[in-house]
Design brief:
The chain is an alpha/beta fold. The chain is built from 27 helices and 26 strands. It folds into 5 domains: 132 residues, Tetratricopeptide repeat domain (Serine Threonine Protein Phosphatase 5, Tetratricopeptide repeat), CATH 1.25.40; 117 residues; 71 residues, Dna Ligase, domain 1 (2-Layer Sandwich); 136 residues, D-amino Acid Aminotransferase, Chain A, domain 1, CATH 3.30.470; 217 residues, Rossmann fold, CATH 3.40.50. 35% of the residues lie in helices and 20% in strands. InterPro entries: TPR-like_helical_dom_sf, TPR_rpt.
Length: 805
């Protein structure tokens, strides 16, 4: 008799429970182990909705949004009433930029839990993002009325202070933090409440907006010790600050950042306070309220009425970070496209502000003027340095201009900023640090940020010019690694805030537990592939001269992968600025394009798709299908920029040009920038529609002389000569009208590419164009094992499933 052994049957329920515990762990190794056990379980017991849910949750923990989404979608068909599942689906859609799909998943959550106020808040935020303003306003109002305040954390024996935080829900559009899947109110508030010691401080956050209509809200508030007025913008939030002021008078508790003081720290209030100061300049500002229509007309009228002088700064009130802010040299030729787009949505308040020069010509930063800008925080009457930012050739200094400047000139951080942070009085003109501290105490705000610089123009040289002084500035303690000098500066400021809270509440200081900061960011990895891991470093840098990428359906998903950094020129302003404002590593430049650096003309046509910076051919030379659409309506001036003149462009991997602009002018004025470029994508018309339109031969000739080889035509379009009528059994289009011509490095340049560049090119060809054979060759030149894994992942090896996107 032969003895046989059998493997004990797996207890599926017990195994799923064990896997669930691993998924709910906080350790990456447990999440990975959960996926391994799911593989084994599903091999024997396929089609388990619970297993697919756990797979989705594990991938979500590991920040694999596309894999998580795939698993959760499959499970959702079998579990249509699972609130947690649909909430997680919404999160992954948000991570990938699928805003409408995210909103759909949230609506299902709302059906399953109609009393869940947080879901209503998130739905309101998504409706703002997707342009459904009426529904957004309705949902937001419902959420605020149903839950006008909420408590963060519960009171325990460790609680030292309870802080009432005042906010306004109605003064700004809401958006979404895609990583944390929380609603954002970016304007009108600072982020200080989120940095308080959570273990020892309980927060009660109150939206003041409904207090006038529902005064009973005040009676329902729990006990608290101190009020922190988190409403920070005197212009945007004037009504809300008035409500907050009345509330603070009624509550009779210690208040940090009194609403009256915030209202008085408006641009006009600060100007009145400092206009006669002998050492500090707060530029004169003219406020233009309820502006609609043309920004140019409003500014021209202000120049005449208020005797302003050019150059001046024009900015929209209520926005931070340099948004909607222009330095105007000539009103008639200046491009106000982004502000005009905002004005088309409704009236806005504008400021016309006198410009004071703070630029210097520094021998260690040649080629353009260097603009230093300093930031400090005032806490309880004491001034603390925070950072120094620099712009090379750019007066509007913010992080987006500072980062490439600091990368190009590291001594600005290692020497200049370091000295400012350690001893600011030595960096500024003699006595100016103390003068600034004394002056800012007059503003009478407990927690206040200030941006300033040293004036360099004749007559006022060595005075300090204050660009901004308000409590809206953000505290980035949570964004820097603890070992960095900048973190220590933010830590000191945040510690001082906690000290002030304890003092106002009348309790002794304790060992504050502040945010531990973030570790240094690792090199960004490329977006995940289902079964293939790309191994190149650095983002792939693209310059798009026709705003082609941000108008693609998968743009947000592509940018969410952290593999791309994109600069998009948008001469016809086809991209809605609000749809891309929150996209990281993306710079949108409307009403401008690459060219020879000389002014050009934008020919706007009856068919918006035919609008171009090349003049349409006469009607008799146009195809019949677009003859009427090519009719020119207006001619508008538009600026062009030489590619070789772009500062701070560390590298250019991918250049996109279209056939509606002078591509040869871009190429001929960008030879230096394109020396190491990996791919040129040039739209080519085989049936010309514009005067002076380039052809494939001219572009190929330039490319061959500059180290590129023609590779293929991509996405060809054809014209049909069959009649356009119903009833045809089938149709056919055979005449090639346009295509995207792709050029890659020629054999000599290709041989010199390092492995990182080869993988970036392979990734681009694979993910954007669906090309697999050349990526395989490129990967094989780096690592034969890697190339074999790629073949398997793409389904070219027998027995392997094709996993192309």
């Amino acid at each position: 008799m032969t003895e046989s052994s059998t493997t004990p049957a797996v207890d599926v329920k017990a195994e799923l429970e064990a896997i669930s515990q691993l998924v709910n762990s906080s350790e990456k190794a447990d999440w990975e182990a959960a996926l391994e056990r799911l593989e084994a379980l599903e091999a024997e017991h396929p089609a388990s909705a619970e297993a697919q849910c756990l797979r989705g949750y594990a991938h979500a923990n590991l920040e694999h949004p596309q894999r998580a989404l795939n698993a959760l979608l499959e499970a959702s068909y079998l579990r249509p009433n699972d609130f947690k599942l649909f909430h997680q689906l919404a999160k992954q859609h948000a991570r990938l930029g699928h805003d409408r799909a995210c909103l759909g998943a949230l609506r299902r959550c709302h059906q399953l839990a109609p009393k869940n106020v947080e879901i209503k808040r998130m739905m309101a935020a998504l409706c703002f993002i997707t342009g459904q303003r009426n529904e957004a306003e309705k949902l937001r109002r419902q959420a605020v009325r149903e839950k006008p305040f909420y408590i963060s954390g519960s009171a325990t024996e460790n609680t030292k202070i309870r802080v009432l935080v005042l906010q306004t829900a109605y003064s700004t559009d809401w958006s979404v933090n895609r990583r944390d899947f929380t609603k954002l109110m970016g304007e009108g508030h600072n982020n200080l409440p989120g940095l308080l010691d959570e273990r020892h401080i309980q927060r009660i956050t109150l939206y003041v907006d409904e207090l006038a209509n529902h005064p009973e809200i005040i009676r329902k508030l729990p006990a608290f010790d101190v009020i922190y007025n988190g409403i920070t913008d005197a212009e945007r939030c004037e009504h809300a600050l008035g409500l907050a002021m009345q509330l603070c008078h009624k509550l009779n508790k210690p208040v940090i950042n009194q609403p009256e003081a915030v209202l008085n720290a408006s641009r006009e209030g600060n100007y009145a306070r400092f206009k006669d100061h002998e050492a500090i300049i707060l530029p004169r500002a003219v406020k233009l309220e309820n502006v609609t229509g043309s920004c140019c007309g409003a500014v021209r009228e202000a120049l005449e009425k208020h005797e302003l002088e050019l150059p001046l700064i024009v900015r929209v009130a209520g926005y931070q970070g340099g948004k909607f802010m222009h330095k105007v040299e000539d009103v008639d030729t200046h491009d106000f496209a982004d502000i005009d787009e905002l004005l088309a949505k409704g009236p806005e308040t504008l400021y016309c502000i006198r410009y004071h020069d703070s630029g210097i010509d520094h021998p260690r930063a040649p080629g353009a003027t260097l603009y230093p800008k300093y930031r400090a925080f005032m806490v309880n009457g004491k001034l603390y340095p925070i950072h120094a930012f620099f712009g090379h050739g750019e007066w509007n200094v913010h992080k987006v201009t500072h980062d490439p400047t600091a990368k190009r000139f590291p001594w600005l951080i290692d020497e200049w900023e370091k000295e400012y942070l350690e001893e600011p009085s030595k960096v500024l003109p003699a006595g100016m640090w103390d003068t600034l501290e004394i002056a800012l105490r007059q503003v009478d705000i407990d927690y206040l940020g200030v941006d300033f610089s040293v004036v360099t123009e004749p007559g006022d040289a060595e005075k300090l010019v204050i660009f901004e002084s308000n409590p809206a500035m953000r505290n980035w303690l949570d964004r820097y690694p603890p070992e960095s000098l900048t973190y220590s500066m933010y830590y000191r400021v945040t510690y001082a805030v906690h000290d002030m809270l304890a003092q106002r509440a009348g309790v002794k200081q304790w060992d504050f537990e502040l945010h531990p900061g973030q570790p240094e960011e690792e090199e960004s990895a490329a977006p995940e592939e289902p079964t293939f891991d790309w191994q190149f470093t650095d983002r792939l840098i693209a310059v798009d001269n026709a705003a082609h990428l941000p108008r693609q359906a998968n743009f947000h998903e592509r940018m969410a992968s952290n593999a791309f950094a994109v600069v998009a020129f948008d001469p016809a302003s086809r991209v809605v600025a609000g749809n891309v404002a929150s996209v990281e590593e993306f710079q949108h430049i409307p009403h401008a394009l690459l060219g020879n650096g000389q002014p050009a003309t934008l020919y706007t046509t009856l068919d918006e798709a035919l609008t171009a910076t090349l003049e349409p051919l006469p009607a008799e030379r146009q195809s019949e299908s677009q003859r009427s659409g090519a009719q020119v309506l207006t001619r508008l001036p538009v600026n062009t920029l030489r590619l070789d003149d772009i500062d701070g462009l560390a590298r250019l991997d991918w250049l996109i040009l279209d056939e509606r602009a002078d591509a040869l002018a871009v190429l001929e004025n960008g030879a230096r920038a394109l020396q190491d470029t990996l791919l040129l994508q040039v739209g080519v018309a085989f049936t010309p529609t514009y005067v002076g339109q380039h052809g494939l031969d001219a572009v190929s000739h330039w490319a061959s002389r500059h180290g590129f080889a023609f590779y293929r035509l991509h996405e060809p379009s054809h014209q049909s000569h069959l009649p356009e009528r119903d009833g045809l059994a089938r149709t056919q289009a055979t005449q090639l009208t346009r295509a995207e011509a792709l050029f890659i490095p020629n054999a000599e340049r290709m041989a010199k590419l390092d492995d990182n560049a080869r993988q970036r090119l392979a990734f681009l060809l694979d993910t954007v164009y669906g090309i697999h054979d050349l990526p395989y060759r490129l990967l094989a030149d780096c690592d034969t094992t890697l190339a074999e894994d790629y073949l398997k992942a793409r389904g070219y090896v027998k027995g392997q499933a094709n996993s192309t996107q």
